Amino acid sequence: xxxxxxxxxxxxxxxxxxxxxxxxxxxxxxxxxxxxxxxxxxxxxxxxxxxxxxxxxxxxxxxxxxxxxxxxxxxxxxxxxxxxxxxxxxxxxxxxxxxxxxxxxxxxxxxxxxxxxxxxxxxxxxxxxxxxxxxxxxxxxxxxxxxxxxxxxxxxxxxxxxxxxxxxxxxxxxxxxxxxxxxxxxxxxxxxxxxxxxxxxxxxxxxxxxxxxxxxxxxxxxxxxxxxxxxxxxxxxxxxxxxxxxxxxxxxxxxxxxxxxxxxxxxxxxxxxxxxxxxxxxxxxxxxxxxxxxxxxxxxxxxxxxxxxxxxxxxxxxxxxxxxxxxxxxxxxxxxxxxxxxxxxxxxxxxxxxxxxxxxxxxxxxxxxxxxxxxxxxxxxxxxxxxxxxxxxxxxxxxxxxxxxxxxxxxxxxxxxxxxxxxxxxxxxxxxxxxxxxxxxxxxxxxxxxxxxxxxxxxxxxxxxxxxxxxxxxxxxxxxx
Length: 481
Ligand code: ADP
Ligand code: MG
Ligand code: ZN
Fold this sequence. Notes:
The protein is α+β, with helices and mostly antiparallel strands. It folds into 3 domains: 3-289, no CATH class; 300-414, no CATH class; 422-479, Arc Repressor Mutant, subunit A (Orthogonal Bundle). Helices cover 40% and strands 20% of the residues. A hairpin with a 4-residue loop joins strand 13 (250-255) and strand 14 (260-266). Helix 7 (327-339) packs across helix 9. The mean pLDDT is 94. Adenosine-5'-diphosphate is lined by residues 6-10, 157-160, 199-201, 210, 213, 215.
């Protein structure tokens, strides 16, 4: 029998706010444990929450970037559960009246098919503290760090619209790209500011009803998410094939080393949490004008940018995708283009080629690098004017990248100016021909490949500075005399 897979994701994203969501403590990653805490985020009785406006703004921003409706009226609820890293024994979240509802995100799946993935909701909530387990059994102990307690968090819930583990991964990468773009979050999976629970079910192909879902937790890389889903897809398929479909919804963990999911607990239900409106917080009423202001201030989104690059600059979909995918890269590309009158494709090639290579090597982002758009634009103009060769340009580029100097400075300092002086080159060419009678004879006997060797010799002699077009022309002229 054939089976179909259904996947829905719940993504938690830490917002880029200065302060926590309901108190004034600093929201900072990597500080000494328990240094950014106060009675509020330590859950002391009597401390009252005060909502951080910036967190609301960023949640709305995420909602608009994902084409959600922003609710003019929403509410905060308490979700009760006990865990040592949750000092109040409840989490402030939004249950039945979330801030954003009904969005969508378009992806292209591995089959090249465009798919619209609907977003059910995005709500605002607070982060829990962090537990560090050490040792096991009676000798084991746990340490608690409340710096994370109360950080501003959003939860993005998709409809069950994804149909394969690969689609789920593509969706998440796209979501990360867009949230970084609008500067809602830095979305660092390795630091936990972008986390995902993946729900999956499998049913016989053609059946109208979805199978029973499994919720996969603690997946901390894109690779783990895809691998865990693929494993679970197989496991559920085998259960169906054996005539023993799962009897209950489960929360399952992922064992990275064994490459298997494992049973953690039956899935808790909403009723287990005893949700009720938080009496310490008034309902959240959002003015239409504020939403419109945030909408106006949104940058051009990656999708729009890519379409424009293809239309305006004639770039391929792949190039447009690479350049438009990161905001800093796009800004660097566009800034260079404003200063350089030549082809957009030339700029694109340098940005995606040498620049990307060096950034990757040094683990820097475009904005962190010393190389500025002015310098690249100036260098490209020097190539166009024949002042430096394309080959020398690579050396110049690397030097600009590491020193931040202008191309002209580097060319002058290192004497890299291209030799385009015809009489100077002609003398060099004659010298080379005299030194290599073999290849000269070969060429004259019709083995035209020998020309490449001779060009190479001239370039070597001039340390790459000879104008290659001119060298070619002069060599031919001499050889055909
Ligand atoms: P809960 O908190 O109980 O997990 P949520 O509403 O937060 O509930 O999330 C439910 C998630 O499960 C959504 O992403 C939804 O798309 C997904 N989902 C619901 N039913 C199925 C199903 N049968 N198979 C796969 N995913 C499902
Ligand atoms: Mg869930
Ligand atoms: Zn605090």
